[in-house]
Queue: 2 jobs
Job 1
Amino acid sequence: MLQRLAVSPCIPVHRNPTRALSYRPPVCVQAPSHLVKRRSANFKPTIWHDKFIQSISSEDKHEGRNKENVTKLKEEVRQMVLKEELLRDKLELVDALQQLGVAYHFKEEIKSVLKGIHVSMIQMSFSTVGDLHVISLLFRHLRLHGFSVSEDIFKSYMDNKGDFRIELSLDIQGLLSLYEASYLAKEGEEILEKARQFTTKYLKSYIENSNRTCNNSREKEHVSHALELPLHWRMERLQTRWFIDEYKVEMKMRPVLLELAVLDFNLIQTSFKKELKDLSSWWTDLRLYEKLPFIRDRLVENHLWSVAFTFEPKHASLRKVQTKAICLIALFDDIYDVYGSLDELEAFTDAIEQWDLSAMEKLPEYMQICFMVLFNTLNDSAYDILRQKGLNIIPYLRRAWTELCKSWLAEARWYHGGYSPTLQEYLENAWVSIASIIVFSNAYCMDDDVTAKDLEQFSFSYPEIARLSSMTFRLYDDLGTSKAEIERGDVDKSIQCYMREKKVTESVARQDIRDMILKYWKLMNSQNVGSSVFQEYFRNVALNISRMAQCIYQHGDGYAEPGQETKDRVMSVLLEPIEI
Ligand code: 0FV
Ligand code: MN
Ligand code: MN
Ligand code: MN
Ligand code: MN
């Protein structure tokens, strides 16, 4: 199978301490930069200019009052969670909190409610029978929160041939909840696989029938939304935004919940805007785009990625680090894929590995700029952690950037050498070259709750869930971007490797790659990552990377060629408050 990367815990910054003494002026081995024949991908400029970003109001004159209100409402909701008695009510409340995007305020309470339910289920040997909707909600939330629960819980809804009983197809709410639960399946779980197929089939026919009869339009809207994408795969802030609007007209709507959700959404969004303004000043002041106009200039879209990984207020400084890193990832990726010559890329990869300003001198000027901006940005983020927590995380970040550059170099060598990798060769490299190891390393090393022991663990290998999530990101990316990449000249991506190896058409390959993605999701669900606060946080980052990748590439390449879809997402998550 796919190998994990071996890692030395502490890479010495200077391999040879006497180097400074034996310093000699560098010899430039490459062709002079102006003689290199360069390609360009003709990426469009950004639609979000700094002038516009700075003109956005990030001051809310009611911010103080709204914060006070949130504190008060939170207390009311906390009481609600603790007071609820019936199983159905408890679960529906937990589910609403989750979908309204405020569950993070009540982590402890929700855990304790679910723990109570779980304990009583153990006492009854999981022989719970009841409403399909309630049991499905129960199953999904137990799994999401790391409680062990077997798929056998659904056996009582099956006939003696092992199929779901046909009369269930009339229970739309039950079908919908079972459908959502089925996406929490682990590798090899057949009941849940049957559940997914059964519910998908009958929900689709419900939509077809109701197109003719036009009954209950809200239910229909919910079913279509779910069929488009299950909850487990959705980018959280976008789902929250959608659900808040739905919740407004829900029969069981509780005004306290709604008010909390809207205020909280807007407060968090105010923080996103402040972050964005700082980031836009940083990016504009670097003036990289003037010097390197061939790159993807996508600051705002990059911040949307960071928000997707960790939206909670306490992660504001991590988000800024992530957005800066993604700007540099996109810049470097374009150099390795399109702009740089192979000689230059070899030299650049060496320089990154050495992590030393003198290594930079051998590089052409445009690469010196790239090297230095990474050197400064990374050291800057690491400095904050060293100052605040006394932890030196530079070795971990260097490791990730070096591995990333090496994986990009491998692809460049393949491309320039006219080599077509096997699918396995490709994937072993491509889960790294998609660059999420940088996101993971930042998220891991810079979290408040990370312990020295966690860091030691990290120095041996990346957690398996990081590799699985990166794999989904890679495959989603290839589905959305490989057409343009191959046209402009690039190494074969997963789709082309698959077509060649299995001798199938592109549309078969695409479908099979979608099936592979589903398999990776199941493997992610199978990971037993532990239940500490830190472990749960890290698992969510992994799930969120897959969710965001699915979202950005849902309608093609929403990143390099952001159209109306991406613009709408930026507006509704980052810029437009919900009206009160
Ligand atoms: C990948 O671009 C991509 F979406 C980037 C670089 C931005 C977001 C990155 C992270 C959140 C880590 P592209 O399709 O050019 O990547 P490949 O690897 O296919 O060249
Ligand atoms: Mn690329
Ligand atoms: Mn690339
Ligand atoms: Mn944390
Ligand atoms: Mn790509």
Job 2
Amino acid sequence: MEGSRWPRVTEEPDGALALEIGDGVTGCVLRDLAGGTAPPPFSVRALRPLPPVPPGERPITVDQTNHSVIAGETVVVKWFPRPSRAPHPAPGLLAHLAGFARTATPYAAVYWEDALVALVTAYLPEARDGWEWCVDEAEAGRTDFAADIGSLAAELHLAMAAPSGVFPDPVRLSPPGSGAWRERAEEALREALALTDGEDGVWLAGRAETLRRELEPLASPAATPLIRVHGDLHVGQILRWRDGYAVVDFDGNPTVAGADPYQPAARDLAQLTTSVDHAAQVAVRRRSAGPAATAAWAVSARRRLRTAYTRTLTEAGRSGLLDPTLLRPFEVEQECRELIYAARHLPRWRYAPMGVLRSWFG
Ligand code: ADP
Ligand code: MG
Ligand code: MG
């Protein structure tokens, strides 16, 4: 039976879904997508016509949240092993971004009932993500990349802020002074303090008041534009491939449940700049990079990134999309989130946010 070679979806007693992707499933699904069919309760949201896909597949093996497979050296099928029935942001965002070329061309979203189970996009030859290429740059002390990815982030935001059939009204104004962003950031700080033990925990507790003060601009920010942001914009989501840089992975932030999808552009920019600091930490820990030179590299790369970002917005007449007063508090919140993520999922990552916080507040 045709349908038997689609993935198996099982529903656990608590309602959680699990996806089983057996051998040959990716190829079979792609053949059916080309023919425009899907066995119910699967369905397909077509985004662009699927190109012919030659046979042959291989898994992507870098650290990843989901399970991506390259098929025919032409497309990437990203399977979501734990599909969620909550609305997934990626298909809508990718449809909205139809005019934005600097991502992997999206072809189709595959659903099981109302849960997104796969995204099919173009394969970008020779792609490496920033946890490789940006660490290379840190080790070599080069910063030209920072201008490139700064303008890439601004171009993404300009595209997010442009009306489309999907989001005809993509820019909103925040209600002034609600205090909700400070509440969210302080909660992250409290959690980071509670979850970080040992010497790091002692150091952090000694800086708790300083960190809290950094979050104060969030208490009553002026009204500021809100757009659909990427939501998880770090160098690992920026691929350097044969033809330049591309931003991928519009899944949103896996560590913030239920966040309003409309956020200040500064959220993404703050996360991206802190990820450059993380790349510096990785270069020192895992490569031969010297700490002092790498710290200087990070300062200069961050500055170039932000300058290029601002210049690209300004050239488009949209400098008002960025409220720079939000950057520092969002950066501090991001470092707290990295500590929470490390404590919960990846203890060996703790050195990176701790190294960054020590370099800022040492
Ligand atoms: P996840 O949600 O699992 O993090 P991503 O969309 O970020 O998934 O993809 C994981 C990794 O797969 C990326 O870091 C990159 O190395 C590789 N990758 C993703 N999309 C492509 C693509 N279109 N072409 C080539 N490699 C890709
Ligand atoms: Mg990713
Ligand atoms: Mg992801």
